[in-house]
Structures are given as C-alpha cells and as structure tokens.
Amino acid sequence: MSAISFAWFVLVLGLLRVARVHAETVPPPVISPKSSDEWTVGAVATVKWLTEGYPVYQSDNKTPLVGDVFLSRLTNSSVSGLQIWSQQPLVHNVPLVNQQAQVVVPNVPTGHSYFITFVGANNRGPVFTIINPQDPNGTGAVPSSLAVSTIPFGTSTPGASATSAGASGTTTASGATSMSPSSSASSAPTATQSGGAVRVGEVGVGWTVGACVVALLMF
C-alpha cells in the first residue's frame, strides 16, 4: 500500500470513529412533561423521553448510556434567555433505556416558563407550568440553587403522575448556569414513533460513506 493510500485509509477510519461517537451521544428528545402539563411543588412527577430510533447503549450494545435530568426556565434576560440549574440535577445518571424517571418537584415560584433539559443543554422539552401553593402568583424570588430530593430508579412507576412526594434523599449545591439559547424550549425535537428520526450519527455515517467512496476511487 502506498503512502497516499495509507493516509486515505487512516482518514476514513477516523471519520468512522467520529460518526460512531456522534451516534452514541445524541440524546433522546423529552416528550413529557408536555406544554399543557402542570407540576406542583413537592409532588412526584414523571419525565419521559423517546428512545425509538435513538441510541441507548454504548458501542458494545450492552452497557446502557446514562444522562441527567435538569429543571430549566426561560428568563427575560436579553443576555442569556434561559436558566439551567445545572449543578442540581433532578435525576443523575439515569439509564436512557428506562425511558422515564420520577422526580420530586423542587421549591420554585409559580410560573409558566419551565422546561426540562435532558443530557445536553440543547436537548430541551416543551415549556410547562409549575404551581407553588405557597406562591400562587409567582412573585417569589427565583432560587440560584435547588434543594433536590431524589427517588431511586427502582421505585419509578410507569405512567406515574404528580402525587405526594416520597424522596429517599436530599442533595444541595450552589450555582445555576445561564447560557444563550440556540433555540427556544418550545422548539424541541418532535417526538415520533416511526423510528425514523434523523440523528447526528446518521448524518455523519452518510458523509463517511461518501468519503469512503472517494477514497476508493483514488486508490
């Protein structure tokens, strides 16, 4: 094999690896809570995400991919536009294959601008409402950090709705992260049951196949 052929081989191999990594890291879209849903502070609610057509295992097809569930909200700030409580996940390292996780709704003011961020900052669910019985008008101060009560994955019940809280532990941390949105929370990926969702990995594989063809033609 000539030096040029070997260089093309290395390039194609690298592109295949990049495509595989992209396919493994594309997070499933959040499908619940929906825009019409209302959560109540202190209650147990369920976050659901679509898995059909999205990777849920690592390349060995045995080890589950995991992710964090964050509460987020739209803001009136012209600088950031949104706030993600990135230091206090509602759920930490939940297997994507679970398709859902139960959370205890944290103590935040009543508002209609909350949404769920799942795995990545740009993977946002629809905007929904949180009701705080102690602050029905939503005039309370928005906390910079959340006191999060966690529920073990094993106690998650499919289809569970907001009920009384049953947390197994509480964790706190300081600091909330604000970042400029690339799109609004309401423009999250549309859920589909067809399994034909376009993923970054699939696009990468398409370009990689093209690169392989070009490389072969130049041998």
Describe this structure in words.
With 219 residues, this protein is an alpha+beta fold. 19% of the residues lie in helices and 27% in strands. The strands form three sheets. Strands 2, 4, 5, 6, 8, 9 and 13 form a seven-stranded mixed beta sheet that branches. Strands 1, 3, 7 and 11 form a four-stranded antiparallel beta sheet that branches. It has a two-stranded antiparallel sheet with strand order 10-12. Helix 1 (3-25) runs antiparallel to helix 2 (200-218). It is globular. The termini are close together.
Task: Itemize the secondary structure elements and their pairings.
Layout: H1 3-25, E1 30-32, E2 38-40, E3 43-49, E4 66-74, E5 82-84, E6 91-95, E7 100-104, E8 111-118, E9 128-131, E10 147-150, E11 163-164, E12 169-172, E13 177-178, H2 200-218
Parallel strand pairs: 2-9
Antiparallel strand pairs: 1-3, 3-7, 3-11, 4-5, 4-6, 4-8, 5-13, 8-9, 10-12
Helix pairs in contact: 1-2
What key phrases describe this protein's structure?
219 residues, alpha+beta, 4-stranded antiparallel sheet, 13 strands
